[in-house]
Automatic annotation (TrEMBL):
Entry keyword Glycoprotein: no
Organism: Sesamum calycinum
Keyword terms: Membrane, Transmembrane, Transmembrane helix
A single GO cellular-component term on record: membrane
Subcellular location: Membrane
Superkingdom field: Eukaryota
Membrane-topology descriptor: Multi-pass membrane protein
Protein name (database record): Sulfate transporter 1.3
GO biological process, one term: transmembrane transport
Domain SLC26A/SulP transporter intervals: 70-146
Amino acid sequence: MSPTLRAQRLHVATKQSLFKEFKFTFKETFFHDDPLRRFKDQPRSKQLWLGIQAVFPNLEWGRRYELSMFKGDLIAGITIASLCIPQDIGYAKLANMDPQFGLYSSFIPPLNYAIMGGSRDIVIGPVAVVSLLFGSMLQEEIDPKKNTSINGLHL
């Protein structure tokens, strides 16, 4: 029999306890890429810096940012603003709120993303269903015709 046609021996996996199996499944489901692998075998100062970079990713990529990239970022910002500002004002009206509250929802999350370094996985802003639910909740609690101010805020 030639060496290429030899039968290979297969190793049968040993039966694991329920806890180990659950732990492995949980880790593979939620942390399949092992987000803490960069921290292993690092000195404490390096772990601290990596932890800060994990919270503020712009500290990592900010060093590579060039002025030539700003043009694309500016065009993207103007495009998003031209779409989001009217939409957010409309959603604020849909929720029976003043337009400035809709503008807060279009301004604060992107500002937070700029500080925190990005948001490739989540989008925050008002949507029609949330606006309708919020408006109906507010109407149950506060009559906008009777109460013109709440804690000094004029509605």
